[in-house]
Amino acid sequence: MGAFPGRYPALWPTANRRRWRTPDGVARTPGILGVVTTRRPRLEIEYCTQCRWLLRAAWTAQELLTTFGLRLGEVALVPGTGGVFEIRLDDETIWSRKASGFPDLAELKRLVRDRIAPELSLGHSDNR
Description:
Blueprint: E1 12-13, E2 20-21, E3 27-31, E4 34-37, E5 42-48, H1 54-68, E6 74-80, E7 85-89, E8 92-96, H2 97-100, H3 105-116
Parallel strand pairs: 5-6
Antiparallel strand pairs: 1-2, 2-3, 3-4, 5-7, 7-8
């Protein structure tokens, strides 16, 4: 029997334990209203609340949404602590402040573009 006996018998945990996967491979997150479907590709920006990096995270999200529009299925701001500023695309960490400092936006756009829309031109950001 699945993780939600009787109600969602075909769900099982994914690697990060906060999401569940159905037999068709769709990731879903259990919530107070049931199971929520996650749109792909999902970009997460985890930021430190103690460092007050919400504005930086929101600005980064805005820039990525403006550049990629409907090519991104979902962009989430995830509060964290301990100086974290990480950007993940479909559970793969593509940028970590602890490893590389804060991202240059042009470089971050290229990293995201290469994974979700390699054919997309970034205009002047491609020339750096």
